[in-house]
Write a structure and sequence with these properties.
This protein is mostly helical and about 450 residues long. Helix content is about 75%, strand content about 0%. It contains 25 helices and no strands.
Length: about 450
Amino acid sequence: MITTLLVIFIIGYLMIACEHVLHVNKATFALIMCALLWAVYAVGSHDPMISSEMIEALGDTCEIVVFLIGAMTIVELIDRYGGFRILLLKIHASNKRKLMWLMAFFAFFLSCVLDNMTTTIIMVMILRRMLRNYKERWLFSCVIVLAANAGGAWSPIGDITTIMLWMKNYVSSVDLIVNLLIPSLVSVLVPVFFASRLIPQTAVEPLNSQDQRVGYVMSEEHPKLSILILCCGVAGLLFVPVFKATTHLAPYMGILFSLGVLWLLTELLVRHYKLDGKIEGRVSQVIKSIDMSTILFFLGILMAVAALSQAGILGELAGWLNDQFHDVYVINGIIGILSSIVDNVPLVAACMEMYPVANDAVITASADPAYTSLFVQDGLFWHLLTFCAGVGGSMLIIGSAAGVVAMGIEKIPFMWYAKRITWLAFLGYIAGMAVIWLESLFLPM
């Protein structure tokens, strides 16, 4: 049975990785793989508790899925009302080299509130209005991918992997920010320093004014309305960690509250400004535009990983890694490199199943208490995992959702990225890990 499960998982992974070669959405393979793994486990194990185990796994997975639906709807709502055009008008630089630094910092801090994929879409679409040379846009887009992935690593709501770890109390919001902000920033500064040398210090071109998307037209007709929705949407996302810290309820309840408030606000605005025929600004209309294939992909892949966990495979893998390396830097370094080849979501999900959070009793009973103490909540292992899984995906353009999105929008060749960007991303990755190591020496976690 174990062999069959592994074969199904490996084949499913290969199909997901070859999404752009096969031209079949990766959610297709994730859902098929999920169902097959649970079916084989049910038939092979004869476990009478299989139904309750599957329901428990589905409950944990749906917490994340519901959170994503709420967050993606809020982001789409901001775009529908032209909030992101307001951001575009705030970006000013005297030359293209300074523009690259500005775009990198903008993407870095924007992705700590939005997810890295959404940030990349917004920033690359802004670039299309600022730069005409497609090779310059390729380089700028790649820098945005690096910055967006790094920016998502230090925020509890900045990336799906940090959301997963934060929702399950492997990390807390304040400790995550304090310990990973500087390493994540360094992982951007290093590659941008070198990349900016490849851009001439020529003047930035005038903005392209031909974009007629609904949000851009809306922001010209009602700029104050666009600013209102932008501010309320971002405030709603930032409210979620506060809600969790105050009530100790799961984050998806906070995002549902924020979405409900925005829903009420937009209903009142649509009626007052008579916007029905202009932008379809109600949440009930906006929610139709969110990427449900991405939601289904996360559902399938997280449930697939849960099946491997129930079968005991992940526990054995954790034991093997500990025996072979017994070093959290090496283990997480390998995980980060792997995340540039395969999706970081199942990697992090697997680690969460492989290495449960240690408590005082587990540490006391351990043969190596010092090593086991690295796995407590907000321990070094979990901060390293958050950083490596988020930043490591930048080493290949297919290693993150942000990279795949940029690749699709700008048609960036895989080998072009590998030759020019991979080594930059690797330098930033190593530099960030070095900063975490220094922090652990002088500022024990």
